[in-house]
Amino acid sequence: MYKYDEYDQRIVDERVSQFRDQTRRYLAGEIAEDEFLPLRLQNGLYIQRFAPMLRIAIPYGMLNTRQVRRLSEISRKYDKGYVHFTTRQNVQLNWPLLEQVPDILADLAEVEMHAVQTSGACIRNTTTDQFAGIARDEIVDPRPWCEIIRQWSTFHPEFAFLPRKFKIAVCGSEEDRAATMVHDIGVHAFRNENGNVRFKILAGGGLGRTPMVASVIRESIEPEHLLTYLDAILRVYNRYGRRDNKYKARIKILVKAMTPEVFTEKVESEWEQIKDSASLLPEAEIQRVSQHFIDPEYKGLVDQDFNDLALKAPAGFHSWLKQNVFPHKKSGYCAVTLTLKATGDAPGDVSAEQLDVIADLADQYSLGELRVSHEQNLIFADVEQTALIELWEKLSAVGLATANRGLLTDMICCPGGDFCALANARSIPLAEEIQRKFEDIDYLHDVGELDLNISGCMNACAHHHVGHIGILGVDRKGIEYYQVQVGGSASKEAALGKIIGPSFKREEIPDVLEKILNVYIEQRHEDELFIDTCQRIGITPFKERVYAQAA
Amino acid sequence: MPRLLKNNEVLENDYRILDSESADQAFAGTLLIPAKELSRYKKLLEQKQQPTGLFLDSDDEVESYADILSSFDLITINFPKFIDGRGYSLCRTLRDRYHYKGDIRAVGDVLIDQIFMLQRCGFSSYYLREDQKAEDAIKALDTFTLRYQGSSDDPEPLYRKRKAS
Q: For residue A122, what is the DSSP state?
């Protein structure tokens, strides 16, 4: 994991002083409300429905146990004793006091954390694969590149007032676990025929009101040019992105309006001017940052026979083993997902008590580190297989061993109308109703891998367009309704879901889901995943079943 | 209250933007020609009796004036609203691509909390919005003592300066 040196620490400390002074001037009436807005947003501070909300960055999803303990302390000291993990690999406090935010930032800075650019019309927290560095299908470890991008984007003076927010995701595996195709910029790290690292650059993906899948704008770029190429893309966007209409201001609209070809020409011509500048990334810096992400000293272990392991274990372990344990590149190890989706808890929420247990267990079982996934879950990345039963027992005791990773009830869900001022409908109660309806773990395992995404509004924080089943909360004359779409995917072959028809009342949704699942179960070929059946049969059979009674 | 900030000093305003009414009136400072009306005042620029500057709005194309940039003593870049960030890229293009060495001034909705970034992008003077405190603006120029990325004020990124650890 990246460790700050004196330079990194000083930059974060100076940011705390800057924000302390800005908050003081705002409270003294020296900065107007609308002028404080972008300043506080670039420090992750929202004014929400009931209270401020502070979004803290977890760069590319990596946390150590010292940081987890600090989050727990902060949630007790300044908030209501819980935190919320988001789809951006960030963590949110829902009830801080504005006056105390500078102190929270100071407490975070002590453990190398911050809230820099977690919101606002600037470059946001770069996200990546939660299994980066340990996945068996990995080609290039994305983490050093994410850290290099983090430093480049932090307080980038030219791009603090972009037309809109700007999100970058990096992946370096066969499978895309970072939803790069629906980001403003997607970076795919690969190796060329000589084994050298190269990046494929995509731009113009995004969800929200006008969802779009990104276009490839460069097939291959050398590492030393990565930052100047990003500079060129951002400069073209900053100058030509629309500013007259908030809903047309994202880079996806610019890329579409210009066409990807013309956009690419503009970027290339900008890049030609700056590619040999002092911003060329030297090999020494790549090495320096990469040193922070070299493999820990793994023990020489052998792979366990999981069938054998399951036989020895208590009931309940088997389904958790099957669903929440991910293969590791090193034999004898595995990664374990703690889904933050227990029935009755808001998806992504963790209490301070749980955070303390998580920190202790990560020290004991996962080399003191953990990861945050964009599915709002936590991951222990380096667990010895022989310790799995013990770990499962300890996690079970605190409600963190729900065996549903990747299944229907492991939904991605935004905070919705319960917390978010933008929401048109609530998401959390719907998630709970769905979890209650589909409690039978055997049934969930039979249905298999299925991404369910629930957004409380068009802004699509829960990425409903790329859920295999996506649910969008809409408001009709002050009443909450929910629109259902099927067939979306966030993989490298990203696809946007199609709306099956008129929207439903909240209480109807669990039955609608059951009907959709019944169509799948009846029509699936052996071993065929929900998304594959969807793509084969189209939306009509789902539509016919769901609306049968109304017809 | 003076609100022109240049070289860490607070000075009296010394420029005026040309319009058809004021074109013939005497003015001791720099006369700014709006880029969009350059053709109309071409003669004035050629004869050049007094300091002459270029007024760029955030949607102007710097590239269109590349060959005559050196004839201007001052270039102002307008911020119609402080959240309109195009001026930052315009300034960097003037400095880095066209190597414009004269004074580049931020004008319009220029606020204290943006000054550090403006300076980094190559601005050398600031005409602050009326209600801004010039002394606070001077302090804001030193907000950070380190910067990760290279920019017009200092092209060397931090990674070229870090001590080997």
A: S
The C-alpha atoms of residue A328 and residue A397 are separated, in whole angstroms, by 25
Comparing C-alpha atoms, which of A116, A98, A107 is closest to residue A66? A107
Contacts of A438 (CB under 8 A, 6+ apart): A408, A409, A444, A510, A513
State the angle between helix axes of A65-78 and A101-109 in degrees (0 to 180), rounded to the nearest 10: 160
If you measure CA to CA, which chain B residue comes closest to A15?
B144
SS3 letters for A4-44?
CCHHHHHHHHHHHHHHHHHHHHHHCCCCCHHHHHHHHHCCC
The neighbouring-strand residues paired with A378 are A338, A372
All residues of chain B having their beta carbon less than 8 Å from the beta carbon of residue A225 are: none
Query: What is the SS3 assignment for A85?
Result: strand
Nearest 5 degrees, angle CA A49-CA A51-CA A57? 100
A397: Cβ–Cβ under 8 A, 6 or more apart, which residues? Answer: none
SS3 A379: strand
Helix A388-397 vs helix A317-324: angle between axes, to the nearest 10 degrees? 100
Residue of B114, B142, B148, B151 to mutate, interface with A, max A Cβ within 10 Å = B148
CA neighbours closer than 13 Å in the CB half-sphere of residue B116: 18
pTM of the model: 0.96
Angle A34-A36-A37 from CA coordinates, rounded to 5°? 65
User: How far does B95 lie from chain A, in Å, by closest CA?
Assistant: 12
Listed residue (A207, A241, A275) closest to A412, CA to CA:
A207
Residue tagged 């307080």 (tokens):
A155
- What value does the mean pLDDT take over residues A164-183? 96
Q: Which pLDDT tens digits describe chain B residue by residue (165 residues)?
A: 789 999 999 999 889 998 877 766 778 889 999 999 998 888 888 888 889 999 999 999 999 999 999 999 999 999 999 999 999 999 999 999 999 999 999 999 999 999 999 999 999 999 999 999 999 999 999 999 999 999 999 999 999 998 755
A-B CB pairs within 8 A amount to 109
User: Where on the phi/psi map is residue B45: left (φ > 0), alpha (ψ -120 to 50), or beta?
Assistant: alpha
A11 has a chain B CB within 8 A of its CB: yes
Q: Which residues pair with B32 in a beta bridge?
A: B17, B53
Dist. CA A228–CA A273, nearest whole Å: 10
A244: closest chain B residue by CA: B84
One-character DSSP codes across B27-83: -SSEEEEEGGGGGGGHHHHHH--S-EEEEE-TT--GGGGGGGGGG-SEEEEEESSTT
Q: Is A188 helix (H, G, I), strand (E, B) or coil?
A: strand
How many CA atoms does the CB half-sphere of A37 hold within 13 Å? Answer: 9
Count CB neighbours of B93 within 10 A. Answer: 22
* Residue from B83, B78, B114 nearest A238 by CA: B83
Q: Does B129 touch chain A (CB under 8 A)?
A: no
Percent pLDDT > 90 in chain A is 92
Q: What is the CA radius of gyration of chain B?
A: 17
- Strand B9-11 versus strand A197-203 pairing type: unpaired
Backbone angles phi, psi at A12, to 5 degrees: -65, -40
Burial class (CB in 10 A: 0-12, 13-18, 19+), A420: buried
What is the rounded CA–CA span in Å between residue A225 and residue A187?
13
Both structure tokens of B127: 């005409």
Instruction: Write out the DSSP string of A193-262.
Output: TTS-EEEEEEE--B-TTS-B--EEEEEEE-GGGHHHHHHHHHHHHHHHS--S-GGG-SHHHHHHHH-HHH
Q: Which of A157, A100, A153, A104 is nearest to A126 (CA)?
A: A153
